[in-house]
Amino acid sequence: MAPSAEYRSGGPRYLSSRIDDLPGFAFAFDIDGVLLRSSGIIAGAPEALALLHRNNIPFILLTNGGGKHESARVHELSKKLGVPITEENFVQSHTPFKELVEGSEAIEGLKDKTVLVTGGDGDKCRKVAEMYGFKNVVIPGDILMEYPTIWPFNQIFSDYYHKSTRPLPRQVDPTNPSTSLKIDAIFVFNDPRDWALDSQIILDLLLSKDGVIGTYSEKNGDPTLPNNGWQQDNQPALFFSNPDLFWATSYHLPRLGQGGFQASLQGVWDATTNNATLSRTVIGKPFAHTYRYAERVLNKHRAQLLGESIRGASELRRVFMVGDNPESDIRGANEYDSPNGTEWTSVLVSKTGVYRAGMEPKYKPQVIVDDVLAAVKWALKEEGWDWVE
Ligand SMILES: [Mg+2]
Known about the structure:
Elements lengths: L12 E3 L9 E5 L6 E2 L2 E2 L3 H10 L4 E4 L7 H12 L8 E2 L7 H4 L11 E5 L5 H9 L3 E3 L1 H7 L11 H5 L22 E4 L6 H12 L30 E4 L5 E2 L7 E2 L1 H16 L7 E2 L5 H19 L11 E6 L2 H10 L7 E7 L17 E3 L2 H11 L3 E3 L1
Parallel strand pairs: 2-5, 2-14, 5-6, 7-8, 7-9, 9-10, 10-13, 14-15, 15-16
Antiparallel strand pairs: 1-17, 3-4, 11-12
The protein binds magnesium ion.
The site of magnesium ion has 8 residues, from loops.
Organism: Oidiodendron maius (strain Zn)
Protein name: HAD-superfamily subfamily IIA hydrolase
InterPro entries: CDP-alcohol_PTase-I, HAD-like_sf, HAD-SF_hydro_IIA, HAD-SF_hydro_IIA_CECR5, HAD_sf
């Protein structure tokens, strides 16, 4: 077949008989175990992304990682991977929390409310939340520094907290709840560093009246109420950004992730309430909320990338989700039901991440390939585009 276009030499070239068509497909790449491992570059990743970039094939990076603002992360990633990555094609675990600043018809915006943010180094996640537009952000360390008795074993972390805490916007005065510090929502943005303090303060809030620190709801344990009275007294909503129980680090065995903290808090909750239901919202892969959000970001990015030419062009027909984790990347892509009818195809890499060739994946992908470069080659072939070295 005669090539209809040829691109500059250097790096892989790309020729296609359908080059005049707009790609009706796009990619979503997980980062850890697909593009990077312990912040080192995985072989073939820069080539794969460069090829897509050069050919205007849209892609986003979709990760359960976080802890830094998107602007800082895309700057690092662009440098490492050698292609421009911007906030327009990057979604990390806590990015969808942005939507809660202004809220929606269904959910009241939290912009002017007081929110508790936990997780991450120092108060980096507070700063991320502020950049999203939340105006009143408290971290557990703020409360500890003013009220050290709230968790008696924390002197050991005083130096750590000194560097990143701020005065509280209101005093804690349970005898006068109307003027006391009241938390309207709790966000676990990233893996907590101090599980003990964070567990205690989150539990306090879940047991409080109206989210006022230091109060205890009289409804707790009342058998005449739904859920035996637990979480029935206007306590703050609880959000987690990432359900991963384990993640791959430079240690040879997987380490506990934010999902480990969630399971630990659940255990404390169960023991405290005699197994009442714990209401909370969990986002991140594999949950549909994150895939729906990512698809919106991808469609917007695609429209910008393809510009005027997209007018009258078909909708995004297919997304290839390339990941290393069957329980998040693959499960999420398999189970997600796009409101736009976009098909998500799951592609599992077997040599660079959590999943290793030979294991039986708990959630089966549409295809297993060696690495990200092989994934892109496979997908392009599926779509009838040719790769020429
Ligand atoms: Mg991964």
